[in-house]
Amino acid sequence: METRLLNISMVWMLCTALVYGADLPITANPLKTRADVQEAVRQLCAPLKPHYSEGKAQVHLGDTCTNYGERRCEMEAFARPFWGLMPLAAGGGESDFWSICREGLRNGTNPNHPEYWGTLTDVDQLAVEMPAMALALALAPEQFWTPFSDAEREQIVVWLDQINHHQVADNNWHAFPLLVNASLKKVGMPYSAEILEASLQRLDDFYLGDGWYSDGTGRRMDYYVPFAMHFYSLVYAAMMRDEDPVRAALFCERAALFAKEFQHWFTADGAALPFGRSQTYRFAQGAFWGALAFADVEALPWGEIKGLYLRHLRQWFRQPIFTSDGLLSIGYAYPNLLMSEFYNGPGSPYWAMKTFLPLALPADHPFWAAEELPFPNIGKTSVQKPALISIARSANNDHVVALTSGQWCGLDFGHIAEKYSKFAYSTHFGFSISREATGLVKGAYDSMLALSDGDDIWRVRRKCESVEIADKSIVSVWKPWADVEITTELIQCYPWHIRIHTIKTDRPLETAEGAFAAPRDAGVAVPENGSNRTDGARYGGSGILNLSGAREPAIIVPFPNTNLIHPRTVIPTLTGHLEPGEHRFVCAVLGEVSAERAETAWANPPCFQDGRWIVPEGR
Q1: Which pLDDT belongs to residue 610?
Q2: Whole-prediction pTM
Q3: CA spacing 20 to 30 A to 249: which of 1, 234, 390, 394?
Q4: How far is CA 260 from CA 65, 298, 425, 428, in A?
């Protein structure tokens, strides 16, 4: 099914390329050189052309909407491609979009034009889209500043200056007035030094140590750390190194620390770990590697950074992520509205264009001049305590599994429990989103312990009461009801992980604990419990083995399109009943990419020996 979708996507992309002028679809782009990456920007932008408004300030890409309304959705779709077009222009690349962008910028900032983008309010989506265009003025003036008249420049500056007179969300949004003011300063226009300094100070408040930030005051140590907090800090460092050398050096030092941690989130072929919100931004996951180059931070050897960057792009463009007319879709590894947040509009996925920032660098920069190196030898485990994450990987680096506890978004953007509170996340199995809280089939409870008090409405871990992370385990305490307290311990022993639950309940409960959601083979019947064991269930590379507690194996076939990576899945599950009192569940969960390796591992489950969990020899 996935191969067929990819083939259809390639055919449509080829047709789009022939109609709108690109030589080849992006799925055929080798993405090995700077010229290839420049071409990728043109290939991604070409299908946008027929969707521009008459005045070029609005881009209508679809009829779904967001919490900020259709008008701002269409402005967002205009602005976000700037993240690719701006560095393309700054680095001397060619495009026939320059006049389109200038016309849209001229009309969108003109209060007397019918396509005027409007007056800013507090916590306004317009503030999110301002930095890409402001940076274009500063980094690519030949295309986006010099051609404007003095009156037009003043008009653009007045519109951008609105950000200095309104509140922004108390998270990564503080980088937006920072970059707008830094850009205005660079082009010699009036800016707010006071707001610039306040933004820097507030962003610094979110720093946790060891290279990690939280995205705001909640417990959000997700992709907003690399593709927002560090990304914007590195842009600032590169722009303001002479004017603010102390902070520039600090931002670069923090990014270098973070790079050592973040490389563990990737497989050898470039896949990144799906985790947290905003997964529809897709290859923005790799924007951090390009930002390191932009700020001249050799946190790893340049060839390794280049390899992480290019393999990530290549991995993404092998996926069926485009609509039939070549537009980036809302979704993750395939089009999927179910996993989206209320702020994901038709143009939102083009935030991924931030990944093209290193195109602003010349061809002889060490990043582009370096030979692409293979995935580095970084060890098989990484405990990242500020992020409350423990990561393990396969011997050949084709699979990454993260165990996590204690993160919490603090804002309900949609399906937050699934995006932050599952026990495990995987580059191969992804994670699933519930369609409803009723029933295990609609709930799709992979990597979760789901509980019901008899009404078939299931509750899972959401916000933890407490969490402790050590080198060997993560322990969390959580309460699905006020009178039910669960202590969960998670332990890595790849290709397995161990889950230990101590459950104190004042009410009878039904329980269901899922392994990873395995891709379902087309046309293959799903067995009742997926294995020949009475104490566990397995399907493909995913399995769950009961080690303690009275539970029965089962195979759950959830609704289609619940998983971010695989449209149809199967979830090996353990089910059981609890009477009021204290209970202890222990299980081992298997996750392997290779069916052959999974078969061997299933025959050699982990055991507790000499005070620790080990995987026996023989696998």
Answers
A1: 85
A2: 0.94
A3: 390
A4: 38, 11, 20, 22
Residues 89/144, Cβ–Cβ less than 8 Å = yes
What residues contact 90, with CB distance under 8 A and at least 6 apart? Answer: 139, 140, 359, 360
Q: From CA 576, how far away is CA 553, in angstroms rounded?
A: 9
Omega before 358 within 30 of 0, i.e. cis: no
Going by the DSSP 8-state scheme, the letter that residue 322 receives in this structure is B
CA distance 544 to 550: 14
Phi, psi (rounded to 5 degrees) for 16? -60, -40
Of 610, 568, 44, the C-alpha closest to 284 is 44
Q: How far apart are CA 325 and CA 323, in angstroms?
A: 5
Q: What average pLDDT does range 348-362 have in this prediction?
A: 98
CATH 1.50.10.10 correct for 2-369:
yes
Give per-residue pLDDT as tens, 148-197.
999 999 999 999 999 999 999 999 999 999 999 999 999 999 999 999 99
What CATH class is the domain 381-614?
mainly beta
- For residue 191 the two structure tokens come to 């800016």
Does 2-369 match 381-614 in CATH topology?
A: no
DSSP three-state, residue 75: helix
State both tokens at 246: 């102390």
And the tokens for 348? Answer: 């939102």
Q: Is 609 exposed, middle or buried (0-12, 13-18, 19+ CB in 10 A)?
A: exposed
- Rounded to whole angstroms, the Cα distance separating 472 from 490 reads 9
Residue 328 carries which DSSP code? Answer: B
User: What are the DSSP calls for 34-91, one per residue?
Assistant: HHHHHHHHHHHHGGGGGGB-TTSS-B---S---TTHHHHHHHHHHHTTHHHHHHHHHT
Give the residue extent of every domain in the chain: 2-369, 381-614
> With contact defined as beta carbons under 8 Å apart, do 532 and 406 qualify?
no
The whole-chain average pLDDT of the chain stands at: 94
CA distances from 599 to 66, 496, 536, 542, 574 (A): 45, 13, 13, 10, 19
